[in-house]
Structures are given as structure tokens and as C-alpha cells.
Amino acid sequence: MSVLGRADRRRILVSWFALPAAALAAFVVGAIMLLSLGANPFTAYRALLEGAFGSVDAVVNTSIKAIPLVLVGVGICIAFRANVINIGGEGQMVVGGLASTVAALALGDLPAPLLVPVVLAAGAAGGAVWGAIPGSLKAYFNVNEILSTIMLNIVAVQIMNYLLSGPLVDDEFSGFSAIPQTARLSPNADLPVLVGGTQLHAGVIFAVLAAVVAYALLWRTGFGFRLRAVGLSRDAAGYAGMPVKRTITLALTLSGAMSGLAGAVLVFGSASHRMVTDGSATGFTGSAGFNGIVAALFGGLNPLWTILSAFVFGGLLVGGNAMQIAVQVPTALIVALNGVLVVFVVSIEHARRRYGLRLEAAPEAIGPASPEGGPRAGTTADEPPDDGRAAVPIVEGAEE
Q: What pTM, to 2 d.p., does this model score?
């Protein structure tokens, strides 16, 4: 019993402290990078914290930055739990933003209580369609979803550039050259502001609700059980009579819907209340389609923990600008620091999962053998218990 207790304690330590240790290691590497540029790491990190959380305005800016990260991250949790990789968040956000924009232009006379849900639903529908395409290709034709989602990102950008410089362009703009943007969209579609005098809008409520609903879907419904079962073993799920192909398609469809909703929130929660870009996906999304993946991994692929991780990562993005100004370091250093954090998080998740499996396989942890000499009843030698963890691509799973 004492040996089993030690194994459990070791597993808990790995589960709870691996990610914070990875983040700390990333910031140590960042400090070395700052020193190499002649900057004081303590001054830089203090500026980062103050820029992200040091005032009401800073917290509001961090919260606004975190909203699309939460929504995209929730979609990533759904897809990765089914063991499919969604790298198409950028394109799904773009299509969601375009779909919601078209809905606002077509139905701009509707009252706000009706128009706001309509444009958000249109955004989610647009992203769902853009996610269902690679989902269907993966499920029915075994097309690699990484390639298909990346290619669809490029297609979405070209569609956006065409529409925003042609059919949807603001005709009243006058200047040296036309900016790829729409006219100011109907005020009835603006997301309500929660705190007067700030830009904190109702998108934060929608993001939290989406995370709660996704958690309930994954762990409190039969569909969520099937989705996680397919993620753990498609062959076993199919042998049990589960609709594997349909589940894979729905996983990427729901993941795309979350990203599409994030795109709609970006349009109608923005200060300009119009869709605008610089000709690239990043010009509209701010790389939230990729940063949301990091938020989901940092949250252990749990929608509820993704809320907190997205807020922290949003603070890193917002505070990075303050740090750059305070210590006069290049913008590339902020990008590099984010990249280092991503590498450490992904690496530690891989190590944590493998270490956890070794603990599960230890004779002391498995317990008495069966009469036939194998593992105890209800387990297999290479199968971890059903504790909510999924066999996740790239990181090979993440604990709740």
C-alpha cells in the first residue's frame, strides 16, 4: 500500500507541476535571451506583468485578447480528444468572420436582440462548414487532416482578399488606395459592452459558456464518450459499433464552429465594427488560430482549464508589447519567447504522458496479477485507465 501511495503521489506531482515547470523553464531561457541583448530580465518581466495585469485597462486588454484563444482552444480540445489535428483555426476564423459579416450586411435592420445571435450563429456555421471539409476527407478518404486544414487556411485567405477588395469593400472610402475592409457594419450587431468606458464586450461571456458546454459535451454525454473512445482507439470503437467516420467528421465540424464563432466575435467586438485585413490571415486573426492550440495544450486539453490558460497566454501577448517598450528589445524577441514557451509546453506534455504510462505499468501500481499471470482484471498491459485522458496527436495525450 505504501508503494502504491508513492506511485500515486509521483503521478500527481508530474500531472500538476509539469506544465508550470515547463513555463518556468521557458522564462529562464527568455531571461538568457534578454541578457544576451543587454536587457535586465527582472525589469523586462516586471513590465510584462504590469502590462498584462497591472491595471484595469491591462486586464481588459488581456481579457479581450484571450476571448478568441478560449474559443479556438475549446475547438482544439474537441478535435484532439478525437485524435484528429485541427491546424485550420486561422481559415475557420476567417470564414466565420466572412459569414457573420455577410449576415450583418443582409439583415442589418433586425433589432439587436435578434441580430447579435444571428451573426454569431452565422460565424459558427461558416467555421463548421470549413471544419467539416477536412473532417469528411479524413474520415471517408483518409486524407491527412494536417495538410487539408493548412491548405484550406490558404484558400480562406484568398476568398477573404477577394471579397474585402471587391464585393464587400467599403465603397465610401476615399484615399490613395482602397483598404481591404467592409463598411461600418450595423450597430445592431455590435456585441454589448459589459463595463462602461472600456472595450470589454459580451464575447467573454460567450467564450466561457462555450467552454462549459464543451466540457459537458465531452464528459457528460454519450456523444462525448464516443468521441473520446474514437480518439483512444478507432479500431476498438468501430468493433463496439460506434460510428467512427461520422464521429471524426463531427469532431472537426464542432472544432471549426468554435473557431468560426471566434471570427465573428473578432468582427463585432472590434473597435472599428467592420471586417478588415492586411491581405493575410494574421491581419484579421492576430494568429489566434495557432495560439489557441497552445492555450488548449497548456490547459491539458480540458475546456475549463483552457479558459485560465488562454487568459495567461493572452497576458503574455499583451504584456509582451509593454516589455518591448520598457527594455527596448526587438519585436522578434517577443515572438521567440512565445515560440520557446510553445516548444517547452509541447515537450513537457510528451514527457509527462510517457512518465505517467510508465507509472501505470509499474508492477506496484498495477497490483496483484490475475490467475493467468497477466494484469489485474479490467486492465491490459498497455492500456491506461479511463480517467479522461485521450491519446492526443503531437503530445500523445494530456491529462485533464
A: 0.85
